[in-house]
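Feature request disguised as a bug: please show the residue count (581) next to ABC transporter substrate-binding protein in the output. Example input:
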Amino acid sequence: MLRFSLRQNNKDSNLSRLFPALIFFLAFFCGFRPGFSADTKYGGELILAATSDPRSFNPILAKETSTTSITQIIFEGLTRTNGLTLAVEPALALSWSVDKSGLVWDFKLRRDVVWFDGERFSADDVIFTFNKLIYNDDIPNSARDIFSIEGQPVKVQKIDEFHVRFILPKKFAPFLRAMSTEILPKHILESSVENGKFNFTWGADSKPSEIIGTGPFMLSQYIPGERIVLRRNPDYYRRDKNGNNLPYMEKIIFIILGNQDTALLKFLDGEIDYYSLRGTDYPLLKPKEKERDFTIYNTGPAFGSNFIVFNQNSGLNPRSNKPYINANKLGWFKDVNFRKAIAHSIDKEMIIQILMNGFGIAQDSAMSPSAGFFYNPDVEAYDYDLDKARDILDESGYKDIDGDGLLEDENGKDIEFSLYTSAQDNQRIQMAAIISNDLSRIGIKVNFLPLEFNNLVQRLTSTFDWDAMIIGLTGGIEPHFGRNVWASSGRLHMWNPEQLSPQTSWERRIDEIFDLAVQELDEKNRKSLYDEWQVIVSKELPLIYTVLSDSMFAVRNKFGNLKLSSFGGAFHNLEEIYIKN
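Example output, currently without the count:
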């Protein structure tokens, strides 16, 4: 699913693991080390930068990358996507099969997986995650949008302790890839669900020992505003080709730095191991590659997006019983011609050249070119043309009646709104300044207000207290995983969320497209449907796309087994990476 991006006891269980450990201990001192090879490296740490504290450690509730960048290391799903080949691979599932109808899927689970506290992973955890969390109406989560097919849930049944059956209401083309959604422990969380407290469980104030997953690393320490430390899971089930336990590294440390400029300085000083480049950083970093012992990689256009979105929420704030947006502003924001005028006021080429040093592309489609097959380049594009923007506004009734340089609407109200973006993202701050300046040239006043990232997301998804935002979403290769954004009832349908029924004909059509495409097994027919969706978005502009930077990053030359890719980035195979001598 898409998320907002910021530039993440069985009593005998321990005893049963003692016997192989004892055998290993005796064998070691007899001079035999089973499965070990000379080039295996254990220990060391990876130090990364985080520009914001996590809002929680609960992956079911997460809507922002400040949380998911951490939880995706701690928790796992039944499947995962290979960062290089993009193939679906087993994770907590050992294997799967599907019947001839394409509706009944059987998953055989791994028997060698234990939770961090030593409890054995089983079918009960899978059943609990789907039936008690994802399909629980009292728990707000985006996974429910993904796993609802024409509004119907998937039936999840336990066959035996390590065998789970999923019965789909209709065919669901991306089902295997969707099964990467995180599985959570029943024995830890069941009581919080029964007591109605799950939505407050595993918050940022939780003790690290309370966060129980199955992933390669576990939460060890969190000091707000300072650092997050993950340590190696000694009981992780994956092995290398020689049978050695993974992961190799001992720790992953996220240093909370506040903004990207600070991260750049820390990288140059050797205090962090990875830095995500802005185009303007390239001339500074490139000459220092050999001297500071790192390498810069460019894997092409990023998968995510940057856009302006206007608040079209016509509801009432239950706390004040007043509209979220006053009637005048709501009228402007719902006017597609107003949004088209804004689109023509974005100087994408200037943003690319000045803010990205040429390392970027103009974005017009709801998908990145890096997404491959489902990307549609043939959508409506909006060239930078202030005269055209003025003409569109004039024809739509926005005129400078009193001659003060500001446009007024038909009610005589000045066209003025607040624009928010993340205070930690200097590139988006500068982008907002460029766009605001051009909007002032066509008679629109913009009050720009940078906010802390989690505060920004809170306004966008909970309080709905905002006019317009520059923000972004994570991306991917499967369009359906954006259903939480594009379905009219979706929890991240940010311009007008969780509609009981579609408020416009084009939103209704997008709902139909996503319902049809997810059931279509012919890839060409699926692409045709998703092509139409991208065209609709480009014409209606609920999100006004800006530019897409190249995915560039600098990595210290101390890591072995890096397998870099545009989709997976630098560390998608985290458990296999080791520190070189």
